[in-house]
């Protein structure tokens, strides 16, 4: 009940104020949900997806101004905003740098795949997950830095994709895990299989009646 009341108050705050703090709260929640719901089954698929969106992002940011215009004009929590005048205006800041949720979710599902890959190796180590997670933030900081220096919108995937792909692949090559990484196939967990098996008899029983 308390959670429902709090969520309702936050929702009302967003509807009436469109405040950047609430926007970011919703954006983070949507991004986490997206990473949880979307799954890659192997590294090859992840590489193809990231490389394709790498080209797509560069074209729509540098080639046209459509993406930037839509991001600025569309008032919905589809992006995280970072106030550039926070020190001067505090919570009333109104000059923002933006990060689309796709720039979080797409690399996020690839990093989640690497976490499952680490767990599958049963070496009690999350080496590739942590390395790529750190690389993601380095790429993100690079994006913000370049945006600040050139005062122009930047395609975040231009920096995030090389960081999130190059780091694990380079480390896997050095450690001799590259073939294992590319052969890895993510399969449903035992718990998921049990849930599926438990649902099947019920479906048959209903059909029979």
TrEMBL record:
One of its GO terms (molecular function) is aspartic endopeptidase activity, intramembrane cleaving. It is a multi-pass membrane protein. It is found in: Endoplasmic reticulum membrane. Residues 186-209 are annotated as: Disordered. One of its GO terms (cellular component) is cytoplasmic side of endoplasmic reticulum membrane. Residues 186-195 have a biased composition (Basic and acidic residues). The keyword Endoplasmic reticulum applies. One of its GO terms (biological process) is signal peptide processing. The chain crosses the membrane at residues 20-38, 43-62, 96-115, 127-150, 156-174. Keywords: Endoplasmic reticulum, Hydrolase, Membrane, Transmembrane, Transmembrane helix. SMART domains: PSN (SM00730). Belongs to the peptidase A22B family. This is Minor histocompatibility antigen H13.
